[in-house]
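writing this on my phone so excuse typos. first protein, seq and then structure
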Amino acid sequence: MTTTPSHTDWISVAGLEKGFATGSYALDNSADLTGKQVELHAADGSVRRLEFDQDQLAIDGGEAVKVRITSLRERVYLLDWLDERTRPATSYTVVLDTLTDSYTQVIGTLPTFDVIKTGLYERALCGRPLTDVKVDISHGAVNKPYSDGACPHAKTDELIGVRNLYRYSPTEVYEHTYLNENFYTWHCLKGVEQGLCDTDACHYYKIADALYLFIWREKIVPTLGIVMIDEQNHRSDGKIFGVGDTEDAPLANFPMASYCQRLADTEYPDDL
């Protein structure tokens, strides 16, 4: 295994997508919501109506967009789509929990190439975040007005200290080490990024027992990753969203799913 990568080993998100495509363990689209309508009631009182038709989604009666719908747990769905009419394009991901009639939404945007070109050293000296990948995370109620406590999804520390192995395909294998409430480390053990690793900003939410929403924001190649991790069934599913090879290239927004296993739990001494 190569453990000392050169600068040429970093690839674009489009290159990563090609690596993940061969033999991908991505879940098939769920048809459970086909023909149904769902209302999302936000904390600010706004309401959106979602109408599903196989792999198409119409919002408030507007033009349908392509949506990916998967389910690791019965009656809990991960919805993902892009709004490419906005500039920059906006990523929408919703955990639709029909067991508790609640949802969590993640809205993501990527930086422009002008922003990307700002070096990490300059960002650090100026007190800027090392990544300009941005997310807005919110919660709400499904098919009923929002009220305090309507959504049980909450930030969690249950993954902190965990080291997990993720097999995304026969050729792509990674490990994650969840360091603290703000950062984790990824390491490619096998695949197109073999030998590469980094520590990036992240967010953790508990959706149900042993079911987590994990979000990360990379800084070297600006990337937004959003996955559900089911530690009961040893599966994960989600997506990676990132810039293209050039400023004019299409954005990458591709599915990724894995068979996963826990490698270790870190226990720190009590006297820290």
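second protein below, same order as before
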Amino acid sequence: MKLVYFADLHLDAPFAWLGGSQLAARRRRQSLRETLGTIIRLADVIHADALLCGGDLFEQARYTPDTIAFLERAFEEIEPMPVYLAPGNHDWYGPESPYRQAHWSSNVHIFTEDRLQPVPLQDGLTLWGAAHRAPARTLGFLDDFKVDRGGVHLALFHGSERSGFLAGEAGHQPHAPFDAAQTERSGLHHALVGHYHRPRDAERYTYPGNPDFLTFGEDGERGAVVVTVLPDGRVERERHRVGMTEAHDLTLSVTGSSSQQEVRDRLRVLTGNRRGVARVTVEGEFDPRVDLHVGDLMDVPHGLDGLLVRLGQLRPAYDLRVIAEEPTIRGQFVRDVLGAELDEEDRRRVLLVGLRALEGQTELDPFG
């Protein structure tokens, strides 16, 4: 049997890192819809026996009626291919859930219980699925669970594997925790799991990763997974890139820049003809006279769907030893700060802000 599996699409995600740009956020959300379209076309092209989602298909707190209509139509178009959905902690199944209110086509099956429930996929192959019924404090679905019949058994749910590899993934709290060993002890042959955005192909479980870009810092070969279930319960996995977003992590050096305009020009060249989204880290040694602020760089013209600019390791081109020898207020200030009990980052910040203030800069803190 051949299955197409994905998780953590997060339709209607807020994309807060865009700093409030509604147009940019709408473009990002549209890209997520297009990614789902790519996943569905993949399932159709390879003649998959079913399409499976391991939770966080959408954002429960932000969904729109238009998104639900989009999902209804998307899954209806591949009827009679079965679609199995296991709600996660962001799209949890509750009284007001879109899962309950939508008009799903007959090929859509939603797991609604907070314990694993069986659905036969074919003779001798059973899919066990479960749902989060609240946004937090969901217990482990594999706790005290054992299969009650013969054949091959798969699980589909949204949960946190507790190994060292994934337990510390930034920004993710444990939900429905489980141990890899529980999979085998329960009689399951393999678990298809959502929640962690870092992809992972383990012996007894699979995390596909979020199929399209959500935030910077993601790594690994994320996407949709074509899962072929062999007669003995082993699985073969083939990852497919389905994301519609190009993501760029760039560095902008300001070393040698003599004005804010020169920094802006460098940023314009760096972003160039790139498409998608970009995070630009500004670093280097800059002339203290340069009025450098992140906000002043955000309106540099570009063709990206989203741009994030942040300050990295910046060093003002002050010769502190020379300044400290001056018989001036500026010299006394530098001597006092160099002699103070401060950590190096605080010392650097105080020196920069103070020296700029003494030079009459209207915006004293370029890090603010």
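The mean pLDDT is 91. thats all i got for now
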